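Please, structure for the following, as tokens.
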Amino acid sequence: MKIGVFTALFGNRSLDETLSFVASTGVDVLEIATGGYVGDQLQRAELLHDKQKQRELKATVARHGLEIVTLSCHGNPLHPQDEIRLIHDQAFDETIELANALEVPTVVTFSGCPGDSDGSRYPNWVTCPWPPDFLQILEWQWQEKVLPYWTEKAPAVQKQGVRVAIEMHPGFVVYNPETLLRLRSAVGDTIGANLDPSHFFWQGINPVAAIRTLGSAIYHFHAKDTRIDPMNTEVNGVLDTKHYGKALERSWVFRTVGYGHPSSVWADIISTLRLVGYDGVLSIEHEDGLMSAGEGFRKAVEFLQGLIIRESQATMWWA
């Protein structure tokens, strides 16, 4: 299992600066943003049609002792506004092609979330079954938008020899293991999971139980934590629409790994990943409002390196 980083957190640095810094920390692999809400760090469209630039990129990454294992275009290809939907859909299509050209096996994205009808302007994330309108909306979304879109995309993805890791993220129709497996059952194993425990913790999902349920469907893993504020949660519950900057008032906030849950929880997560056969990357994603990107990244690397070493030693002792 390797430690990686989602380089969107270094968006203000040049690629060469980012690679030099990442390599200095002992991290092995990269997840690079190519569009959607996370931006495009590779100038995707230009790179896609320039073989020489592709070779130069691969040579630059290799010179730093690194490897690109994932491209990420976290967008909403089902957005009800055409101008947004088409941009995100194009980013996904081009990212799939670019992944093939760069020999990158995995693309991370969101499932998307439609509105409540063809006349909607904004996505509508359904979270409860009553009033009955909500169930009607949910059924319409899946049957008219979600399944047709991903059923159409699957052959193109397969043709490019790439697999898609859907990040289970609240706000989109796929947000937990049940909805991920529903989509995968309909579309096939071209679709798998990007498992980010930070989105599970606050929903009350046990990441270890989720890992055991998803098993071989896990294609990628984001190393990010969440701290749940017990006092605020006891008053307002876990559904929280306050700005992330209001950390003292929120029911939960994203944290660097180890700052939301203790090492014993993360050790169990890593061990369970191994048990189900996942030997991929632990890709550090930084959204900790209480730490700078550099500080949060370094702390996450140190924390994960320690866990992997201890887990490996325990495995050797057991063997």
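The domain at 2-318 is CATH 3.20.20.150 (TIM Barrel). The beta strands are 2-6, 29-36, 67-74, 106-109, 163-167, 191-195, 218-223, 225-228, 252-255, 281-284.
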